[in-house]
Amino acid sequence: MPEQAFRQVDEKHVSVEVERMLWSPKIDLVALSNVQGETVLHRLSWQKVWTLPAPGEDHKVKDLAWRPDGKVLAVGYNTGKINLCDIENSDVLHTLTVKGEITSMAWVTQVLPAGSVWSGDPYPEDNSDVYLPKLQPLTKSYSTLAKGGPIEENVEDNKKLKDQKELNLLIVGSTSQELYLFAYGIFPAGVVPLGLSAEYQLRTICSAVLSQDLRSLVVLAGCHDEETKGQHHFLFTFETTLLSSRHKELRLVALKYGQISTLIGYLQSTIQQMAEAWEDILMEMDSKLLKFAEEKKKTGQGTVTNDFLELLMFGTPSSELKMFLLHELTEKGLKKLGHSIETSYSNIQKLVVKHLQNVAQAVVYHLTDLRGMSLWSERFEVLGLDFQQLQETVSSAGSFVLKTSELQQVIDGSIKNLRRSSDGCTWTTQYDINFVAEFLTDNFTHFTDEDSISALRSEKNSGFKLEKVGQYLKREDLHYPPDISANPWTQFLRANTHLTDSSVLYPVKNNKSLIQLQEQLENSINSSLTRPAVMTGSYFPCRSL
After folding, report:
1. Which of 14, 71, 175, 214 is the most exposed place for a label (fewest CB within 10 A)?
2. pTM given for the model
3. How far from the centroid of its chain's Cα atoms is residue 298's Cα?
4. Cβ pair 190, 127 in contact under 8 A
5. What 3-state DSSP class applies to 545?
6. 172-195 pLDDT, tens per residue?
7. How many other C-beta atoms lie within 10 A of the C-beta of residue 473?
């Protein structure tokens, strides 16, 4: 009797029913997905490496794909969402979204002809690290900025794209009758519409395979025949010379897009920590002034705002305000309050100077690189790069850089005023009381309606809004934009109006907040860098399976 071709050597058990499993192409790892929407990574010894829970209640895993180097796992869901996960710790490095439900995924890499060696010529490798300051790792909490405690060691390689040479593409099929191609799993490189005659209704893309020389794409799709009510399968064959002839250009653009995407994520995290520091200042002011506001409401004698304005205009505090400043905000209490606010101010200042300005300048650098590529229309225009759109995106990034410098100046001024109001104060003169009142009124506004107390206690509202700094962290125009009319640079531009439209000068958007410019920049990047090429081809009908 001949020997069996296969022999079972082991059997493993899991607690939840497994729907899919896929071996790593490089190391002894197997990825499993179960009926609960979880993704689990095991070693060959069946040691569990990590478990990735479903992103939402109704999310089910529809397919898995390994990046050819085995460092990243793509997990596709029925919602059209795809998470790229770091195999070291299950962190989601990047998220993609396509139309419809994911039905198939394949991650293929370019294979060079035998005897040839990969070369990026005629394009040089990226050397931005020579010119740009290294981004400092952000801490999990802004309060530990001084201590260090980095989240990740290599901020710039957050997408795990370092040392990627040959082009690789993540091919995604969905129920939207389109096939999506993502270079390195991140950059939208192409969309392939699967056109069928009217009597056939496309149900699913079963499989898609790209040849290793990037010249041919084959797609197997399942269809429903409306006339006979039968099921058919079609084999689509596409000529993808666009990929094979422009693979070096596509690699450059995709890696640049990955760098910019990483920087935008870093920028978002930095602004989030700035907002946390700002909220701490508001809470500190609320806790000190809430009692005074409650007393004013009980007696019905005016408002907090009126008392501060009366003191500043006429120089005489009301009896309640004088009692509050002399007894509630004693010298010790004021210094404690001042120290707490100054710490938060300093943390925001560090985030602006050490993180926000550096990442904003890096975004401008890489966008300017892409703008330069777009000028070589013969090579890069076919990949979706448009000079005019990229010029507008660079201008948006430049405006954001200018706004970070403006915010830094505002913070410096607020810190100086705070130190003057809290250092060496003995609370014995009318001048001292006036100065503290002026600082509070100048930097904070107060609720004036009857619901001020309930608003103060609400988690969603704050009784005192930090206008000088906080206005930059809102999605609305600045209430108190800085006066730049006396600025020598502003005067120079007004005297030389022919320079205002220069591509090397960034527009100053004086009345816009930092958050508004951030959103404008992100929208501009999405519109200028996510226009995949549309590919067409021919298909050949196959017999129903």
Report:
1. 14
2. 0.83
3. 47
4. no
5. coil
6. 999 888 899 999 999 999 888 886
7. 20
